[in-house]
Write a structure and sequence with these properties.
376 residues, 3 domains
Length: 376
């Protein structure tokens, strides 16, 4: 807005049509920009701008000159937009189409969700991540309804079936399922909606997944999407083969650099073996249902904890929340084995490091695994 709106407003209040049109031209752009920031849908912003301009025109007489015209217009627009946004949130609720559109606006900030694997027969190294130029959200976002009564058992069974289906590696390796009918409620009428996200571990680990969720979700019901983030880009078949050849030729140097660490590890392992503190030898674990042949079937179980109790344990022992959760899992597994097989396998949750990344993404981020160590 220009700084000379006061004379225009005074002449417009006196009936000067040209001054009124010039005033509207001056304030229309800033009002639309504000509406777009608060409503973040262009069509809604355009409709709101028209309503705000009408409100400004019909209330010119209420301007008393105790502030700048720009401030007065901004106040009128902000009051209208706050009410409109709150009313829209209350009126809209959940629909799958609206959820699809909101997710589409946030995918632009998640390059991991737009990247797919690319390879060629001439590549001597691992496949690479490239931007999916034909990305289609409808090939990743699905909806399903729970059978009645829609309880925890039904939810776990449906999630298990979803987890058992392999991801399609010709597209970005993730899926999201909107699960309706939880507890026999209607999500469109304020009922409970469950959301399951399935992502291949090659794309994200636990830390990366947590970071992605902060971009995917928000604490505000109508917050604008995060800023777009560039993806890994594209790669030709020749580029993939050439890059793989360079990395293949460089591999002996990497192995040479790893030799000191490897030798040190061997020495430490021999020392632990002599002292009886080493891990058990391969193929000597007792026979249980966990070390049988792995099938495609997946089962999911759900448990609910009071987070305040978890925090109390965390603070009492000076550890992290992850440590408490992993200790619970280790204890549950140990109890299961003791109850069903009448023996105890000492286990310990430990952290390991993932050194595999995709071009342009952080590497060396941690995730958690289970090792056969003393658990006390």
């Amino acid at each position: 807005m220009s700084d000379d709106l006061e004379p225009l407003l005074e002449r417009a209040r006196s009936g000067d049509r040209d001054s009124l049109e010039r005033l509207v031209e001056q304030i229309q752009g800033p009002v639309y920009n504000l509406a777009l920031r608060m409503l973040w849908h262009p069509e809604d912003a355009r409709d709101a701008t028209q309503d705000i301009l009408i409100r400004v025109i019909t209330h010119l007489g209420s301007f008393r000159g105790d502030s700048r015209v720009q401030t007065w217009v901004y106040r009128v627009a902000a009051n209208y937009l706050i009410s409109a946004r709150q009313g829209r949130v209350e009126a809209q609720g959940y629909t799958f189409d609206r959820f699809h559109d909101d997710l589409a606006s946030r995918i632009k900030a998640l390059p991991e969700f737009r990247a797919k694997l690319a390879d060629t027969q001439l590549n001597l190294d691992h496949p690479v991540w490239v931007e999916d130029k034909n990305f289609d959200l409808s090939r990743h976002l699905y909806r399903i309804g729970l059978p009645s009564p829609g309880g925890r058992r039904e939810l776990a069974e449906v999630c298990g079936h979803i987890a058992a289906v392999p991801l399609d590696r010709s597209k970005p390796v993730w899926e999201m399922w909107a699960i309706e009918g939880v507890a026999d409620t209607d999500a469109h009428d304020g009922g409970t909606l469950a959301l399951m996200i399935k992502v291949h571990h090659a794309a994200v680990d636990g830390v990366t997944a947590a970071n992605l969720l902060t971009q995917l979700c928000s604490t505000e019901p109508d917050s604008p999407p995060p800023d777009p983030v560039d993806g890994p880009g594209d790669a030709t078949r020749f580029g993939i083969a050439a890059g793989g050849l360079l990395r293949f030729l460089y591999r002996p140097l990497l192995l040479a650099k790893a030799l000191p660490t490897t030798a040190s590890t061997i020495v430490n392992t021999v020392g632990r073996a002599r002292s009886g503190a080493a891990m058990a030898a391969p193929f000597t674990a007792p026979s249980t249902l966990f070390n049988a042949e792995i099938t495609a079937e997946r089962n999911i179980a759900l448990a609910q904890l009071n987070f305040e109790d978890v925090l109390r344990v965390k603070n009492r022992f000076g550890v992290k929340v992850n440590d408490v959760v992993l200790a619970l899992c280790a204890g549950a597994l140990r109890g299961f084995l003791h109850f069903h097989f009448s023996f105890t396998i000492p286990i310990c949750a430990r952290s390991v490091v993932n050194d595999v990344g995709w071009p342009g993404s952080p590497t060396g981020e941690g995730f958690f695994g289970l090792g056969k160590l003393a658990s006390g």
